[in-house]
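Comment on the following before class.
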Amino acid sequence: MWRGTSHSSDERQSLQPLDETFSEAKTFHEADQLRVRLSGVMVQERRDRFKPPGRWHNDLIVKTRYRFKNEPPVDRLHYIEKEQRLGWRGDFFDDVIVSVPDLQNDRLHLRVQVYDVDGVNTDLVDTIQKFSESSAVLFPQLATYANIARLGSKPLVDLVNNIDQHDEILDEELWLEINQPQTRHKLLQPGYFVCFRDESVSGDLTLDDDLRVLQDGDAYTDGSYAVLELDKNHELQPKREIDQKVAKMVAELAGKGRSSESALHFLRETLEAYSKYEKLERLRELDGEPHPSARCNARAEELRDELKADPVLGPALRMKESGQADD
C-alpha cells in the first residue's frame, strides 16, 4: 500500500491516496527538475531463519529501481549490513534514487526492495562497504566494468539481480504519472511517499517530524515501511549524472529495456551524440592553436562545415558566428 503527504509541516495532513494533490506545489510538469530520495526504511520483521529465537537480527540489504516510461530500469544499491536489529535505517551509501535536471517523461516507475540476505559472504559485504562511494556499488549494473579487483563484480551483480530469491521484508512498486487529480492515476508530485508492507493499514496515518509513521497518534508497529521524498531539485555531481546515464545504457544493452528501439539503435544514438561532442571539442582545440599549420586550418574548416550541416548544432554555430561578426 502506498500513501503520501506534503513536504510542509503546515500543510501536512493524514497520509492520502496518491491520486490526490498533497499541497500547493501541485504536480510535476515537463522540463521540471526532479529528485527522488530514499529517506529511510523501518524494519519491523525478523526474517533470519538461521538465528535462534530472541536474536532479532537480519542480514539487511536495501535496493531501489527506477525507470522512466519505456526506458530501461536502473538499479541503485543503498545499504547492506549483517546482523542488523529491527528499527529505522537511514544511513545509506547514497539516498538519491534518481535525479534529473529536465523532466522529459510523464511516467516514472519506482520499486523499493528490502530483504534479509541469508548466507551472503562477509568478505563481500565488507568490500561493498569499503567501496560504497564507487559507481560500481551505487550502480551495480556498472560493477562488471569497474576496475576494482577486490570487489568481485559477479557476486555483487548476482546478489542484486537475485535479491528476490532471499527473504522479503518489503518489496513494493508503483507507477507515478503527470496527470489530473482524482482520475485514479497516481500523481507524480512533490512530497513524501510511504510504501507499506501490508496491503491495507487502517486508522489515521500521519508522518512525524522524523518521518516515522504514526497510527492514530502512536508509532505504527504492525509492519515494515519505507519513506521516499520527491522534490523539484537536481543536485547530482556531474560524475554521478554520467554514471546514471551509463547505467541506463548498460541496462538497455543487456536487454532490459522495453522501448521499441533495439539495443543497437540505442547505443548508436548515444555514440552519435558523443561523436558530435568530440568534433566540437576538436574544433575548439584547433581554433585555439597560436600558430596553426595549413592542415590544421583546413581541418578546422572541415569540422565547422560538418557541424553547421547538423540540424541541431548548425543554428547555434551560425548564431555564435553572427554574434562575433557584430562585435
